[in-house]
Amino acid sequence: MAERPIIEVPVTESDRRIEIICRLGLLLLWLGTLLCYFYVLPGTIAIHYNLKNQPDGFGSKAYIFITPGIATILYFFLSLTSRYPHRFNYLREVTEENAPQMYASAVKLLRVMKMYIILGFFFQTANDVLCLRFADFHSSVFSILLAWSPVILVVAGVASYLLDENRMRKRNKTVK
User: Fold this and answer.
1) Which DSSP string corresponds to the chain?
2) Half-sphere exposure of 121 (CA within 13 A, CB side)
3) What is the pLDDT of residues 87-139, one digit of tens each?
4) By CB neighbour count within 10 A (0-12 exposed, 13-18 middle, 19+ buried), where does 141 fall?
5) Do 94 and 4 form a contact (C-beta atoms < 8 A)?
6) Within a domain: residue 61?
7) Residue 137 is part of which domain span?
8) Residue among 126, 123, 132 at smallest CA distance from 42
9) Domain-embedded: residue 22
10) Can you give the pLDDT at residue 38?
11) Domain total of the chain
């Protein structure tokens, strides 16, 4: 494998916005979890439900911190990983000419993934807290939408990325 060029990827305005959304989402996720831990949830909560949507596993309310903990670890891991785009796997050969565009696209994908992951964890935690607080919330349409929001966000993110890649590919063909 030939040595890939090591260049710094410039941070665009949309990248800054995505990072702000990520950090704000993490902050709200932790604040919401802490507030629920101290003021909303009882000492013992349901931590697992059977197929009939009835609780069949119980544990300490400290379990509610698993979700923001995982979200924070993923945020820092993806942030660290995005600093080394020259080490990623690419479908096309990376050259001096296409490296800036390919690296920027890969780093943007990681930022968007990070945002969707945090928002997904945020919605899932909101759903969990509402289900724990209100027994009849499990069967509501809002609960179903909240529970499926991570999947919807990931599908939307991948579709957006693929559309952007297709636009860039078409733009590069018309330039040549």
Assistant:
1) -PPPP--PPPPPHHHHHHHHHHHHHHHHHHHHHHHIIIIIS-SEEEEEE-TTS-EEEEEEGGGGGHHHHHHHHHHHHHHHHTT-GGGS--SS---TTTHHHHHHHHHHHHHHHHHHHHHHHHHHHHHHHHHHH-GGGGGSHHHHHHHHHHHHHHHHHHHHHHHHHHHHHHHHHHH-
2) 27
3) 998 888 888 888 998 999 899 989 988 998 898 888 878 777 777 777 666 55
4) exposed
5) yes
6) yes
7) 13-175
8) 132
9) yes
10) 80
11) 1
pLDDT of residue 172: 67
Q: How many residues does the chain have?
A: 176
Q: Which amino acid is at 103?
A: Y
Structure tokens at 164: 């952007």
**Whole-number pLDDT of residue 142:** 66
Instruction: State which amino acid sits at residue 115.
Output: M
pTM for the full model?
0.75
- Tokens 């990376």 — which residue? 94
**40-80 pLDDT, tens digit each:** 778 888 888 777 767 788 988 888 888 899 999 999 999 99
31 phi, psi to nearest 5 deg? -65, -45
Report the alpha-carbon distance of residue 139 to residue 160 in Å, rounded.
31
Is 8 part of any domain? no
